[in-house]
């Protein structure tokens, strides 16, 4: 899978940009604050329908403009199919197009599949559980596009239930909403827990390769529902969730919020039995996050039958020399398309990408992307 071309209009500080991509490495180079990450975010938005940063849609539109537009042409190496994908943001609304026809998210997702690795990901192990929940949800969206509907249904159901708690609604009304919360929540819990199990062996293997010496790594999805009903089918898990919501109802009424469910779960990572956020050194934290992202890429490539597009946002400046080398070595082995940003010189980037790599470069300054006149292979 690879991006062929993209057009970006009025997205953040980018007024207009036309890009064509190398099947291997496309580099967006320039100082900080010029728009490199904005360009990556526009492309990632097409793939994930979520920005890299947690902001409202209207914040993505360039100042004093009514709407933003992103158009991408994507080709699937496995099938040879080519699709034109478009996304328009106007106010808080989003319009999606596939091959010039308006479509919904379910029809749109899966045609451009990408993984982003950004400096924020380096907080994955030692930050709060919300970051790890986002990691799981974004990974699942790539593997199972239908997961988006489940996640959105759950978020809406919890929001509605919390509103009813605030209004001190009758038990009969809450009973009806508990069913919706529990069914969607059980689906999310099952999907996240299964993905964590699938990913863990690869994460552990990559971590041993990267970290030296490597402590004993363990990863598990921590959910109160799974503690209540371990190894139960999704339907039985939903029934347990309903019972737990009703058991906690008096507490939830007092606190005006839903106190159990996947919106409060965590991906627990331990080193030698102790929480990684407490035990790990800075180098081990970086090795762990690198192992998580590489495992995610490999898992997705296997599921798709072809590598996804990989976005690297200034990672070479965030990782030490050894970790940076390991990242680029792994990326080359995957043989997928990589679009990266960097403040470093093109010569430094090309030396990291290795001999024979096809490298396409753009200079980024004040939201303007200028293609290098000479396209070279290192």
Task: Explain what you see.
This protein is α+β, with helices and mostly antiparallel strands. It has two domains: 1-113 and 308-378, 3-Layer(aba) Sandwich (Rossmann fold); 139-307, Glutathione S-transferase Yfyf (Class Pi), Chain A, domain 2, CATH 1.20.1050. The chain has helices at 36-48, 105-108, 129-143, 147-166, 171-210, 224-228, 234-247, 249-255, 276-279, 282-304, 321-334, 346-353, and strands at residues 2-11, 14-20, 25-29, 67-75, 82-90, 93-98, 101-103, 114-117, 217-222, 266-271, 274-275, 309-313, 338-342, 358-365, 368-371, 376-377. Strands 3, 8, 12, 13, 14, 15 and 16 form a seven-stranded mixed β-sheet that branches. It has a six-stranded antiparallel β-sheet with strand order 2-1-4-5-6-7. Helix 5 crosses helix 7 (234-247).
Task: From the structure above, extract its key features.
globular; 2 domains; Rossmann fold; 16 strands; 378 residues; alpha+beta; 7-stranded mixed beta sheet; 6-stranded antiparallel beta sheet; Glutathione S-transferase Yfyf (Class Pi), Chain A, domain 2
Count every helix, treating DSSP H or I runs of 4 or more residues as helices: 12
Order of helices and strands: EEEHEEEEHEHHHEHHHEEHHEHEHEEE
Number of domains: 2
Mean pLDDT: 90
Q: Beta-strand level of the residues, as a percent range? A: 15-25%
Question: Can you tell me the CATH architecture of the largest domain?
Answer: 3-Layer(aba) Sandwich
- Structural class determined from secondary elements: alpha+beta
Shape: globular
Any idea what the radius of gyration is?
22 Å
Distance N terminus to C terminus? 23 Å
Number of strands: 16
Helix content: 40-55%
CATH class of the largest domain: Alpha Beta
Identify the CATH homologous superfamily of the largest domain.
P-loop containing nucleotide triphosphate hydrolases
Could you tell me the CATH topology label of the largest domain.
Rossmann fold
The biggest beta sheet reads:
7 strands, mixed
Low-confidence stretches: none
